[in-house]
């Protein structure tokens, strides 16, 4: 694997999950693979899980790790080419990227959607520049349109808990006070569409995701209808995708909050969320604290998905050298 930004990069999902479950049984099995290799993690946005789980994954593989929070201590970066840099930005991304690449073997990048310019976000301008100019294998730690390490951990979690071969998985929008990217739901949909699960997306009108991510999923604006018979309920807020409301909050309707009453419509479903989650906006205390809540095992599986991804990137480096 030369990069990891979308589901296609991981190849066969059965093989990927099997590899993940094997690593979970013995997470230090490949501790020699990363010896004297350096992972650099670049954060343009905040993180708890991604930062900790990816560093732990690198340590499982014997790697050294450097972390940079671009907004804390580094020079302010200009990202547009052609700009006369007479403002507050002291350095250009076009120099910063190859410099960062010169100090490491693999680069992870977190760079959320700006939510003001849809074309810029959906072209993945920031992570694509890392791929082009760093000279290193690059993986996404949540880019503008996808969060593949999260989706891979979600898939592992569903495979560990499913009670039928072809579970009904419902991705549902839920309310949140601030505008959030579509990366997590886009990516979850992309991975679910690559399985043979019965996959349904529920969201209020105006919140349909980009058609290339919706794919073959059933879409409904009736949350109750979607929840009936669900085996897994994956809640997430996202801002509007469709023009002219791209990146806007159109609703904070708490009748979409996942509550005990909502879960009663399901087939005793498991509750999932990528975290961080706002309680009693997205999900009630009772639901997130119930034994059917998978939020903690899901977050724990982030170490496993990251270990598989780093292992595969390191194996490719070995072949090349
Ligand atoms: C981010 C998002 O919705 O993309 C990160 C989730 C992993 N969430 C927030 O900013 C609250
Ligand atoms: N789920 C997730 O990626 O969490 P962080 O934003 O804390 O990394």
- Helix and strand sequence: HHEHEEEHEHHEHEHEHEHEHEHH
CATH topology of the largest domain: Rossmann fold
Radius of gyration: 20 Å
Major sheet attributes: 5 strands, parallel
Going across the biggest sheet, name each strand in turn. Answer: 9-8-7-10-11
Helix proportion range? 25-40%
Q: Quick one: CATH superfamily of the largest domain?
A: Aspartate/ornithine carbamoyltransferase
Q: Summarize model confidence as the mean pLDDT.
A: 98
Q: What is the count of β-strands?
A: 11
- For the record, the count of structural domains works out to 2
Class from secondary-structure proportions: alpha/beta
CATH architecture name of the largest domain: 3-Layer(aba) Sandwich
- Global geometry: globular
Give a written overview of the molecule.
- The protein has 321 residues and is an alpha/beta fold.
- It is 38% helix and 14% strand.
- It folds into 2 domains: 163 residues, Aspartate/ornithine carbamoyltransferase (Rossmann fold, 3-Layer(aba) Sandwich); 149 residues, Rossmann fold, CATH 3.40.50.
- It is built from 13 helices and 11 strands.
- The strands form 3 sheets. It has a 5-stranded parallel β-sheet with strand order 9-8-7-10-11.
- The longest helix has 26 residues.
- The radius of gyration is 20 Å and the shape is globular.
- The two termini are 14 Å apart.
- The mean pLDDT is 98.
- Phosphoric acid mono(formamide)ester binds next to helix 3.
